[in-house]
Amino acid sequence: MSDFILQLDGSILLFIQEQIRTPFLTPVVTFITSLGNAGMIWILFSLLLVAGKRTRETGFMSFAALLFSLLINNLLLKNLVGRIRPYETVQGLILLVSKPADFSFPSGHTGSSFASAVVLYRRLPRRAGVPALLLALLIGLSRLYVGVHYPTDVFVGMITGVICGFLGEWLVKKIRRTDTASVS
Predict the structure, then answer these.
(1) What is the pTM of this model?
(2) What is d(CA 137, CA 157) in angstroms, rounded to the nearest whole number?
(3) Rounded to 5 degrees, what angle do the CA atoms 10, 16, 106 make?
(4) How far apart are CA 113 and CA 110, in angstroms?
(5) Distance from C-alpha of 132 to C-alpha of 75, rounded to nearest angstrom
(6) What angle (nearest 5°) sits at the alpha carbon of residue 45, between those of residues 42 and 46?
(7) pLDDT digits over 164-183, tens only?
């Protein structure tokens, strides 16, 4: 079963390279993928939310979700699984960005994007939440396009990101309840 998944992963990446990559699309997608570098776009959104009184709690939830994603995806799972990047194993796959220094599984860009976007989607008006989810999806798909992740890396990054989003909300609510209880 795992050989089948590995072959499917590689075939999908080669299909993207051969059928979807274009000179017009490549700079757009490389820009989108760069938005997820170190979670910076999501950190920026979280800072902006923390700065506003009405959105402060949502900003803290997003920060908590990003922290969970960092711990679970980048520090735990990547090092536990130790999956080699696809451009090193899929014959003929051409890398479009700088080589990442860490392992492939799961996608940290996708995990952090979905962690924050899920919080934004659940806590902000839909006119802000829907674009956040769309951006998270685009960042995840961009990781396939540029050749740094397998489809399963991105899929698991989406799942862990959603879980981290819920954990971030839960943690901030729990802290708020504890603070409220100690004040009473």
Answers:
(1) 0.94
(2) 11
(3) 55
(4) 5
(5) 25
(6) 85
(7) 999 999 999 999 888 777 76
Longest dimension (CA), the chain: 64
| 3-26 CB burial, b ≥16 within 10 A, e <16 | eeebeebbebbbebbeeebeeeee
With beta carbons less than 8 A apart as the criterion, state whether 139 and 182 touch.
no
Two tokens at 52?
């506003």
**Region 123-133: what's the mean pLDDT?**
97
Tokens of 101: 């220094």
Taking the CA atoms of residue 107, residue 63, residue 47 and residue 144 in that order, the dihedral angle to the nearest 10 degrees is 10
* Residue 100 DSSP label: P
Q: Can you count the helices (H) and strands (E) in the chain?
A: 9, 0
88 membership: H or E segment, kind and range: helix 86-89
Number of C-beta neighbours around residue 61 at 10 A: 28
Structure tokens at 15: 């299909």
Nearest-angstrom CA–CA distance, 47 and 42: 9
Token output for 7: 């072959």
